[in-house]
Amino acid sequence: MELDALMLSRIQFAFTVAFHIIFPAFTIGLASWLAALEFNWLRTGNPLYRNLFRFWVKVFAVSFGLGVVSGIVMSYQFGTNWSRFSEFTGNVLGPIIAYEVVTAFFLEAAFLGIMLFGWERVGDRLHFFATCMVALGTLISAFWILSANSWMQTPDGFAIENGKAVPVDWFKAVFNPSFPLRYAHMVLGCYITTAFAVAGMSAWMLLRHPHDAPEAKLAASRRSLSMALWFAAIFVPVQIVIGDLHGLGVLKYQPTKLAAIEGNWERMSNMPLRLFAIPDEVAETNHYEIGIPKIGSWVLTHAFDGEVPGLKEVPREDRPPVWPVFFSFRIMVGLGFAMLGIGLWSLYLRWKGTLFANRTFLTATMLMTPSGFGAVLFGWFTAEIGRQPFVVYGHLRTADAVSPVAAGAVATSLAIFLVVYAFVFGFGSYYLAKLLRRGPDPIEDIRGDDLGKKPKRPFSVPDEGVEGKPGHQAQPAE
Amino acid sequence: MFGFGNEYEGLAFWLPLIWAGLIAVAVAMYVIVDGFDLGVGILFKAARSENWRDRMMFSVAPIWDGNETWLILGGGGLFAVFHVAYAVLMPALYVPIILMLIALIFRGVAFEFRFKSDRSKFLWDNAFFFGSLLATFFQGMVLGAFVQGFANDGRQFTGGTFDFLSPFSVVTGIGLIFGYGLLGATWCVMKTTGELEIWARRMAVRFLILTIAAMAVVSLWVPFLGRQIETRWFSWPNIAFLAPIPLITAYVAYRLLRDLEEGRHYRPFFLAIGLFLLGYLGLGVSLFPFNVPPNLTIWDTANTVDSQLFALVGFAIVMPLTFAYTAYAYYVFRGKVAEEIQGGGYGYH
After folding, report:
1. Cis peptide before A321 (omega within 30 of 0)
2. What single string gives the DSSP state of each residue in B29-56?
3. For residue B209, what pLDDT is reported?
4. Which of A257, A297, A439, B180 is deepest in the core (most CB within 10 A)?
5. Interface contact B98-A166, CB threshold 8 A
6. Binary contact (A68, B68; C-beta < 8 A)
């Protein structure tokens, strides 16, 4: 592996986008979660929901801020590091990216300010509207960026003129073959990521108290744990089905990627479901393979004797690196089934009435906090490494997409990104941990006259700084 | 138009012109709105108390995210419709753009982190100040490098990593710090009260003088860049049309100074914006129709007609809406910031 501008740019892009995706994956789900909490608060007047909103909106604000600043980096890197990619795809992807900015980013940004700071100034309904607009903005944003990403996987609706892609049919370009299922898979993945983060953090907050602690201390965390686990129990199975359907699309449109995912060297029917293997790219075979006969073909084609393409059908230089794709996919699927297990376990404990008391389960749920992030990241590794050696599948090689920049410049910027992101991420995690340690406000802090009434100044009670200094009454600026 | 783009007809002629106008507006929006909140950051270190810093930060906290979105639109818009310009400019400006982005990261996280910290607050005060200062400086360098022009083969950048770096781009970097400082100071005059407001007025006067000096230096320097920009300004009949620009600039600067002394609250900020727009107009006159100086025009770098049209439909529908709710967000947070913002004053914290 030579550390030239190409390899360094690939590492830099992979690092910055992997860092970035953590935050949208979380905030897409959190925004909708906050909208649900606020809806329940307005509907029932139960201060539990308000306290939960007030707590999770802080988590949201930190994550969203990190998502914004790491996202701006992405919109410039297409040009700074991948200018030949920009030149080739600009006519098609340029407008799609611009649509994301104008339809989503401004919506999120404008209403985010009102959501975070404006409750006293705009009233309940408008504030709820603002929360919904932020949530909608995250979903619209995901729509466009996944359309662009899908176009790189399964490009459609274009022709090549003068060495560049030019649009022919916008509908086909935006709704290219892999887009609808990828969008469903990703958005649901984000929601599930948030569900497990919320469930895991709630479980941690519950574990810090004995289970017979005053109800007021536990109620909020119990409610969020319960809501998150309902979501997980219902939607993890749905996600597994969508993932399977998405896999059928990979088989149809990106057979080489599929062969790498399966570690399948020869075209075959009755392919086993390979649970483990060490793919050997030099000898073009697998070592230590463990598989279940015929099931691989059945999963992919829904027929036991279905034919699955092999890596050897294309020249070596057109194959993706096999082992990262092979293992990333298995880690993603493994995490998915672990989530399924937690969901089923939660249903069983609910039925027995011991959901909040079973400390083994709470510990397991707590340990699953990062599982969604892991699944999202390894899913992306599968999709994006599986697309190699192309950046636009079948049309533009990654090696031909890089900018004419000096390796030294990229090495320096990569080093800076590594240091800065570690620093920022470290502090972000530190403040997040502080927030979690304090948890949502206990219900007893609410004055009795608030109960069941229209909230007058729901956000005016200020918090303490998370490092423990007491806060003061905030004053609305008029 | 003015002897350019004659080889293009119909939509192929008009669309790039429309788009150049729209992106010019987006960039101007960015310079104004992020200009004042970066300016607030530039003044941050000089603020005399924790309370002042809290109030200054609170005055921009609800809107900075939207302000920075115009920067994404600037980059995204260039990619969207002038992808060749994007492909040439970004590698050419690799160093200042990456450094600007890093500075913006520190500054952006400071908003959230500062109010969640007590012992580590100094860290985020510094992150906010240095982030704002350096982001501004590198933006100014980008501007200077842009006026100097870029080596290219019509599709890709062909120059070196440090071509952007020159005495001229250093001066434009420093000049932009003065300019954003002026915007930030007049914003603080508008949004704050009491001693902080009086201090902001004094800062505004200083930054105004520095800004005018920087504008003068840059204007006098441009002819020496060897780009023949001066012939555009001083040839007849152009000079008759263009002479008002510096004259109006001088008047606006004078009016701004008087307003600050007379104790006006709102007008200094809008006059400072006027000053920026005049400088921007002057720049536009100097560079049109090149969006990759010295040789590539908006027509040379534009996307296909189909591509530009598709993006235009979206813009035509969405941008009025965007302006409407952005204006609404500003309206919600109108008025002066209260003097007692303790504990951060963040309603939601």
Report:
1. no
2. HHHHHHHHHHHHHHHHTT--SHHHHHHH
3. 95
4. B180
5. no
6. yes
**Which chain B positions have a beta carbon within 8 Å of A107's beta carbon?**
322, 325
C-alpha span between A357 and A366 (Å, rounded): 14
Whole-number pLDDT of residue A249: 85
Contacts of B79 in chain A (CB under 8 A): 75, 78-79, 86, 90, 93-94, 97-98
How far, in Å, CA of A430 to CA of A66, rounded?
Answer: 14
Delimit the domains of chain B by residue range: 10-335
Domain ranges in chain A?
229-400
Task: Judge whether B137 and B173 are in contact, CB under 8 Å.
Answer: yes
| Percent of chain A predicted with pLDDT > 70 | 92
Preceding omega of A389 cis (within 30 degrees of 0): yes
B68 touches chain A (CB under 8 A): yes
pLDDT tens by residue, B195-252: 999 999 999 999 999 999 999 999 888 877 876 777 777 887 888 888 888 899 999 9
Which residues have CB under 8 Å from B329's CB, separation 6+?
Answer: A110, A111, A113, A114, B62, B63, B66
Alpha carbon separation from B289 to A31, A90, B143, B285 (Å, rounded): 43, 21, 16, 9
Q: Would an 8 Å CB–CB cutoff place B27 in contact with chain A?
A: no
Contact A94 B304 (CB under 8 A): no
DSSP 8-class letter at B291: E
Mean pLDDT value across residues A267-278: 82
d(CA A359, CA A362): 5
**Contact across the interface for A405 and B343, Cβ inside 8 Å:** no
C-alpha to C-alpha distance for B315 and A291, rounded to whole angstroms? 53
Cβ contacts of residue B219 below 8 Å, gap of 6+?
B246, B282
Contact A110 B66 (CB under 8 A): yes
Identify which of A32, A20, A106 has the alpha carbon closest to the alpha carbon of residue A68: A20
pLDDT of residue B341: 63
Residue B60 has pLDDT above 70, yes or no: yes
Distance separating alpha carbons of residues B340 and A234, to the nearest angstrom: 48
Q: Which residues in chain A have their CB less than 8 angstroms from residue B336's CB?
A: 477
DSSP state of A308: B
Over residues A356-383, the mean pLDDT reads 92
Chain A residue with Cα closest to B106: A424
* Predicted pLDDT of residue B170: 96
Q: Is the pLDDT of residue B332 over 70?
A: yes
Is the omega angle on the peptide bond into residue B289 within 30 degrees of 0, that is, cis? yes
Q: Is it the case that residue B254 has pLDDT exceeding 80?
A: yes
> B335, B234, B14, B302: which is closest to A477 by C-alpha?
B335
B109 to A428: CB separation less than 8 angstroms, yes or no: yes
ipTM of this complex: 0.85
Backbone torsions φ then ψ of A117, nearest 5 degrees? -120, -5
